[in-house]
Specification:
Order of helices and strands: EHHEEHEHEHEHEHHHHHEEEEHEHEEEHE
Low-confidence stretches: none
Mean pLDDT: 94
Largest sheet: 10 strands, mixed
CATH class of the largest domain: Alpha Beta
Radius of gyration: 24 Å
Structural class: alpha/beta
Number of strands: 16
Shape: elongated
Number of helices: 14
Distance between the termini: 50 Å
CATH architecture of the largest domain: 3-Layer(aba) Sandwich
Length: 441
C-alpha cells in the first residue's frame, strides 16, 4: 500500500454520531494526514436511511444500505460500528472481526453486554476493537487508563458518566423545581431522550462503569451484577439539606479495589459529595472521571460526555491509532481492555450490604410526639449512629413531615434492616429515601 492510498474506512450507521464522524474525517482530512503521514479515507457508508440529507458532501464515497457488502469490501480496513443497540450491532461487529477487519465503536451497551465475546473473538483473529467514545464522549479517559496509567495499581474510579442526569441534578439544585418539571425541560432542550429510562435509572452509567472496572482492575466485564440506582425520587428538599451540610448530589459511578484477590466494589447511585471536591463542581451536561493510582495519585478527566462532534473526535482518534498500527503491521499493540483478554479475572463484586458509608436518610412521618424516638431507636438497635437530625417545618395535626438524618459510618446491611423496621411503623407514611455519602474523593 502506497502512502497516497492511505487506509480505507467504512461507516455502519449514519445517524447523529456517524454524521459527526464523516464531518471530522472530511473537514480535518489535511491535519489527519499530516499527523499520520498518510491519508485516512472514508470509502463507504451503510445505513437503512439513504434519503435524508445529512449536510455532508459524499462525493467519491459509496453510500447505500449494504452493510455486509461494506464489511466484505477489501478497500475497508477498519469498520466503524455506530448502529447502536445490541443484536444487529453484535452481528455486524463479529462479522467484521471474522473478516479480519479492525472495529471502532461508540456502543457502550453492546460492549457491556457482549464485550467478553467480542474481545475474545478479536484477540483470536488478531484485530483490534477500539471504543474510546463509549465512555465519556470526547474525554480520552480510556486511553489514559490503557496506556498513561498502566504502571499503576488503580485504587479507585469515580465518575459523572451521564450528561442527562447531571444536567437534571444541576437544574433541580439551582431552580428548586421538582424532578419531572426539570426532566421535561431537559427533553425540550434536547438534553434528554423522549424515553430517558436508561439515563435517569443509571443504566447508561452502569454500562460505562462495567468497562472502566474491567480496564482498571483486570476483571471480566460484568455489567448485570453492578448495583444500580437512578435519580427518580429525589426532591428539592434533599438538595437543600445537602447544601446546608456542605455537600452536592451527583449520580456517581464508583469502582474501588479492595486489595489483591479481594472482590472489587462497583456501584452506581445518587451520592452526596463534598462541595469542595473536583467532581462536585462538574455541572450541566458535562462529564468527569476521577482516577486514583498508587503511583500517580489523584487525576481528573473532564469534558463533553456526548454530542455529535465530541464523540466523533474520540471515534476518529481511535481510527488514527489503528491506522498507524496497520501501516506498521503491528495490530493489538495494546490490549483493548489494558490486559490481554486471557489474563482477565472472574473477580466477584463485593455485595452492597458489606459497604460501609455515612448515609443521608429522608423519612416521611406523621408529626406527633414519640415518632422521632421510634425512628432513632430503630437505627440504634442496628448500631447505626446518628450525627444530625433535622425536621424542616411543622405539620398540622395528623400531617406528614420530612425527618432528615445524617448517620455516622455504618454497614449498609445494618442500615437496611433498620429502614425495614422504620418503614413498617404506623406513623411512617412513605418509603425512606437513602443517599450514600462519599467523603473521600
Amino acid at each position: 500500500m502506497s502512502s497516497a492510498e492511505g487506509v480505507g474506512v467504512g461507516l455502519l450507521g449514519f445517524g447523529t454520531i456517524g454524521t459527526g464522524v464523516a464531518k471530522v474525517l472530511l473537514r480535518n482530512a489535511a491535519i489527519i494526514e499530516e499527523r499520520l503521514g498518510f491519508p485516512l479515507r472514508l470509502v463507504r457508508i451503510a445505513d437503512l436511511d439513504t434519503e435524508t440529507d445529512r449536510g455532508v458532501d459524499l462525493d467519491g464515497i459509496r453510500f447505500d444500505d449494504d452493510a455486509e457488502g461494506l464489511i466484505a469490501d477489501p478497500e475497508v480496513r477498519i469498520v466503524i460500528e455506530l448502529i447502536g443497540g445490541y443484536d444487529v450491532a453484535r452481528r455486524f461487529t463479529l462479522q467484521s472481526i471474522e473478516a479480519g477487519k479492525h472495529v471502532v465503536t461508540a456502543n457502550k451497551a453492546l460492549l457491556a453486554l457482549h464485550g467478553n465475546e467480542i474481545f475474545s473473538a478479536a484477540e483470536a483473529r488478531g484485530v483490534d476493537v477500539a471504543f474510546e467514545a463509549a465512555v465519556g464522549g470526547g474525554i480520552p479517559v480510556l486511553r489514559a487508563l490503557r496506556e498513561g496509567l498502566s504502571a499503576n495499581h488503580i485504587q479507585a474510579v469515580e465518575g459523572i458518566l451521564n450528561g442527562t442526569t447531571n444536567y437534571v441534578l444541576t437544574q433541580m439544585e439551582e431552580s428548586g423545581e421538582d424532578f419531572e418539571v426539570v426532566l421535561k425541560r431537559a427533553q425540550e432542550l434536547g438534553y434528554a431522550e423522549a424515553d430517558p429510562t436508561f439515563d435517569v435509572e443509571g443504566v447508561d452509567a452502569a454500562h460505562k462503569l462495567a468497562l472502566l472496572a474491567a480496564m482498571s482492575f483486570g476483571v471480566r466485564i460484568d455489567f448485570k451484577r453492578i448495583p444500580t440506582e437512578g435519580i427518580r425520587g429525589l426532591e428539592p428538599l434533599d438538595f437543600q439539606a445537602a447544601a446546608d451540610f456542605g455537600y452536592r448530589i451527583k449520580l456517581l459511578a464508583i469502582a474501588k479495589s479492595k486489595g489483591e484477590g479481594r472482590p472489587i466494589e462497583a456501584r452506581v447511585h445518587p451520592t452526596l459529595i463534598p462541595s469542595t471536591s473536583m467532581l462536585a463542581n462538574v455541572d450541566g451536561a458535562m462529564n468527569a472521571v476521577a482516577i486514583r493510582g498508587d503511583a500517580v495519585g489523584p487525576t481528573l478527566y473532564y469534558g463533553a460526555g456526548a454530542g455529535e462532534l465530541p464523540t466523533a473526535s474520540a471515534v476518529v482518534g481511535d481510527l488514527m491509532e489503528i491506522a498507524r498500527e496497520i501501516r506498521r503491521d503491528a495490530a493489538q499493540r495494546v490490549s483493548p481492555l489494558s490486559y490481554p483478554h486471557g489474563e482477565l479475572k472472574d473477580n466477584p463484586l463485593a455485595p452492597l450490604g458489606e459497604l460501609t458509608t455515612r448515609c443521608y436518610l429522608r423519612f416521611t412521618a406523621v408529626d406527633r410526639p414519640g415518632v422521632l424516638s421510634h425512628i432513632t431507636g430503630a437505627l440504634g438497635e442496628e448500631g447505626v449512629g446518628i450525627q444530625s437530625v433535622l425536621q424542616p417545618g411543622r405539620g398540622e395535626a395528623g400531617e406528614s413531615v420530612p425527618v432528615l438524618v445524617f448517620t455516622h459510618p455504618a454497614q449498609e446491611s445494618a442500615v437496611r434492616r433498620a429502614l425495614e423496621t422504620v418503614d413498617g411503623l404506623p406513623d411512617v407514611t412513605a418509603p425512606t429515601r437513602l443517599i450514600r455519602i462519599e467523603d473521600e474523593l
